[in-house]
Amino acid sequence: MTDTGEHVEQLRLEIRRGIVVLAVLSLMDSASYGYNLIQRLAALGLDIEEGTLYPLLRRLEKQGLMQSEWDTTTSRPRKYYRISDTGQEVVTALRVEWQETVTVMQRILEQEHHE
Amino acid sequence: MSELIDRYIHQVGLYVRPKERAEIEAELRSQIQDQLEDRYDGAPTQADVAAVLKQLGKPRTMAVSYSGEQYLVGPELYPFLLTVLRFGLPLVPSVVVIANIVGAALSPAGGDWLGLLIGSIFTAAQAALIFLAIVVVFFAILQHSGEELRAAARTEFNPLELPAVDDPGAVDRFESGVGIAIGTLVGIAILYYLQVGGLTLRFNLNDPGEVLPVPTSWLAVLLFTTFSSILINLWALIRRRWTLWTWLAQAALELVGAVGLYFVLLTPVLERVIQTVPELSERLPLDQLPSIITLFTVVIMVLSNGGRLIRLWQQQGANT
């Protein structure tokens, strides 16, 4: 990979790191299990690796932003995650923050384009 | 097929925290099976399973992702660790080499200078490594137990709270860094003296040379005051200021240390000098010298520490 390519890839990963948390929290109104969430995110255009998402779900649960429950009524147990009350408050605040960031960034990028 | 999954999950489990292992393994197993069912409709081959596992990544990387970021010494404490090492690492080997050379020069046996040089280099390297290990262990303990200290290091900056130029609570980073480095060196020496049962200038556990017996109980007191003083200096360095109570504790430890030196260093050494050169004691009051030096040191300490103590007390009074 060229130097430019490496820089772009590194910065892209940094941008995505923040986005993934907001994306995941935003889709957790209803209970969802790990793989199902990956498919829903992919259908909306955001591909996340399993090795990234599964540990992330667990970390968000530890932080109190999610809660989980094992469903043992099916043929094999499956762990379902759902956003917690605290997580809901956080995601509401983050959505506002995100909208403002997008507006500001659009303004900055358009300005650069016109100059 | 499931045997391959078992092997993968077992490998992940080896690197996660034991108390979380069962839960993570169950969760991961369920997620792998979800993927297999979706992609291969419940009838995956060995190659299909391998493809899914490959996509999950190396077991160790997966386990690290579950653990999150972990530090031996975190970013809040790391600059202070560097400060202590920067002062200590050049100082410790130098002092050890000088002590070895002085010891050899004073030794009646005289000596093999090449052997002394090689021995000094070896001992200096050993002392530097021990110093490094002790300092790192100190900071690692702080990192993993001293939440209050870490919180102090994270405190929000408020320009209005910047200390006055002649603030009595100001911490001199150089003074504290050197204090911690010297304290660690002294602590190592005391541990060595406890091990060999007395004082010697030869730092070699297998061959400590001639050992001058000293009271072990006072060596233990000196060890306690030394390591307590290191901790108080670290506390002040990280909090970036001395308070009335930390300075009072530091001053008290120094006083106890001065008394300890009377029993551990001054008295035994001067008794040995009197035994070796008896005519010297006829001309000088050598038997009184330990008391005079200790008294003089205590007075100097009281005066120098007392002045700062009074200013800290006045500052605390003004703030309350």
Could you walk me through the main structural features you see in this protein, from its secondary elements to its overall organization?
The complex is a heterodimer of chains A (115) and B (320). Chain A is mainly alpha-helical and 115 residues long. Chain A has a single domain, classed as Winged helix-like DNA-binding domain superfamily/Winged helix DNA-binding domain (Arc Repressor Mutant, subunit A, Orthogonal Bundle). In chain A, 67% of the residues lie in helices and 10% in strands. Chain A is built from four helices and two strands. In chain A, strands 1-2 form a two-stranded antiparallel sheet. Chain A is globular and about 60 Å long. Chain B has 320 residues and is an all-alpha fold. Helix content of chain B is 76%, strand content 1%. Chain B has a two-stranded antiparallel sheet with strand order 1-2. The radius of gyration of chain B is 29 Å and the shape is elongated. The chains are: A mainly alpha (115), B mainly alpha (320). The interface between A and B is medium-sized, with 17 and 18 residues.
Fold blueprint:
The complex is a heterodimer of chains A (115) and B (320).
Chain A: H1 3-26, H2 34-43, H3 50-62, E1 66-71, E2 78-83, H4 85-114
Antiparallel strand pairs in A: 1-2
Chain B: H1 2-14, H2 18-40, H3 46-56, H4 59-67, H5 78-106, H6 113-145, H7 147-153, H8 173-196, E1 198-199, E2 212-213, H9 216-239, H10 244-276, H11 278-283, H12 289-319
Task: Estimate percent helicity of chain B.
Answer: over 70%
Strand order of the largest sheet of chain B: 1-2
**Low-confidence runs of chain A (pLDDT<50, min 5 residues)?**
none
Query: Major sheet of chain B, described briefly?
Result: 2 strands, antiparallel
| Largest interface: pair, residues per side | A-B, 17 and 18 residues
Give the neighbour order of strands across the main sheet of chain A.
1-2
N-to-C series of helices and strands of chain A: HHHEEH
